[in-house]
């Protein structure tokens, strides 16, 4: 596919001083607002040969804007015959149950063994190019050490449609977590803006100002005395590390979470043998269990569910020894 060039109509008096990204989104429905914002920031939008890289730039009456959508680059990641647990697939989407330990897409020196490498092999040329060279078809992600369901777009129309649902927070996502302690109250809603921690660039944190609004609805499904619990989390938003940050802020860090765990957790009343098993748990105990969205072509709501992986089932079985 070669690069695409779009020209807008002249800015009308009614649109004068409208934000550039909003104006372009109205003018070019083929592109989502997030795509347009990315194209602006990458220097692909101009007016009278002047490039504008500010999404909040105010348009003026009579202006005509040009948007260049670069041709998708040849994927740098190589196709790799990595087994995938495919829950559903058609011409538009593929739903994958990702194993813990698999990175979703290349980055930070990781160029192989990712979900993208596996998808390139499985899907051949049928992946959306919107995600770019290193993220073909990828609409959303879950952490490397989190297991569970993701939906991948196989064409650009599906990518745009799914991206809009994620932007509107209309995607249904349910996670299962195993945490230290028992949430108080056992059921509720946690909200608070999340941003990169000022003290540790590897962590996200709740902030009083700035950041992005985040809300998590949770419910305790099973508790093991006051030492640990199985918690169901339903996301209203989808911020980086959202569940991990929100539960940790309540004193209920995920078992196995090396980033948000507090040292005092090792003092909880586990037996020596059980404590050794818990400390040895190799990842954050978090699984994306169910996923629901409106299908881009059928316009019907579809929901998918997955069973807990073996390591989390074993962890829960071990914890039941103290109940």
CATH architecture of the largest domain: 2-Layer Sandwich
What is the total number of structural domains? 3
Q: Please, what is the CATH homologous superfamily of the largest domain?
A: Pseudouridine synthase
Level-1 CATH class name of the largest domain? Alpha Beta
Mean pLDDT over all positions? 91
CATH topology of the largest domain: Pseudouridine synthase
Number of distinct beta strands = 15
Q: Rg, please?
A: 22 Å
Largest sheet: 9 strands, mixed
Q: What coarse outline follows from CA principal-axis ratios? A: globular
Unreliable sequence segments:
none
Helical proportion, percent range: 10-25%
In DSSP terms (H or I, runs of 4 or more residues), the helix count works out at 7
Question: How far is the first residue's CA from the last residue's CA?
Answer: 59 Å
Per DSSP, what share of the residues sits in E-state strands of 2 or more residues? 25-35%
Going by helix content, strand content and strand pairing, the class is alpha+beta
Pattern of helices and strands: EHHEEEEEHEHEEEEEEHHEEH
């Amino acid at each position: 596919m070669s690069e695409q060039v779009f020209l807008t109509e002249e800015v009308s008096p009614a649109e004068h001083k409208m934000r550039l990204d909003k104006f372009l989104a109205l003018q070019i429905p083929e592109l989502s607002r997030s795509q347009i914002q990315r194209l602006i920031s990458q220097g692909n939008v101009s007016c009278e040969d002047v490039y504008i890289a500010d999404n909040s730039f105010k348009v003026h009456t009579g202006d005509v804007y040009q948007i260049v959508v670069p041709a998708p680059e040849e994927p740098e990641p190589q196709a790799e015959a990595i087994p995938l647990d495919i829950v559903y697939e058609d011409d538009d989407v593929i739903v994958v149950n990702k194993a813990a330990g698999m990175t979703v897409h290349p980055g930070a020196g990781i160029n192989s063994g990712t979900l993208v490498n596996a998808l390139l092999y499985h899907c051949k040329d049928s992946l959306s190019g919107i995600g770019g060279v290193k993220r073909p078809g990828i609409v959303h992600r879950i952490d490397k050490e989190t297991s569970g369901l993701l939906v991948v777009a196989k064409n650009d129309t599906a990518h745009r449609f799914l991206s809009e649902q994620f932007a509107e927070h209309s995607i249904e996502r349910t996670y299962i977590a195993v945490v230290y302690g028992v949430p108080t109250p056992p059921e509720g809603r946690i909200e608070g803006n999340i941003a990169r921690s000022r003290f540790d660039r590897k962590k996200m944190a709740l902030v009083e100002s700035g950041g992005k609004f985040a809300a998590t609805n949770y419910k305790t499904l099973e508790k093991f005395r006051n030492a640990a619990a199985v918690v169901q989390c339903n996301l209203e938003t989808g911020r980086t590390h959202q569940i991990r940050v929100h539960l940790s802020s309540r004193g209920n860090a995920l078992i196995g979470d090396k980033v948000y765990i507090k040292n005092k957790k090792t003092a909880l009343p586990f037996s020596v043998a059980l404590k050794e098993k818990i400390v040895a748990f190799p990842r954050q105990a978090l699984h994306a269990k169910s996923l629901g969205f409106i299908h881009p072509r059928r316009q019907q709501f579809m929901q998918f569910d997955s069973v807990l992986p073996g390591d989390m089932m074993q962890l829960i079985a071990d914890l039941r020894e103290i109940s």
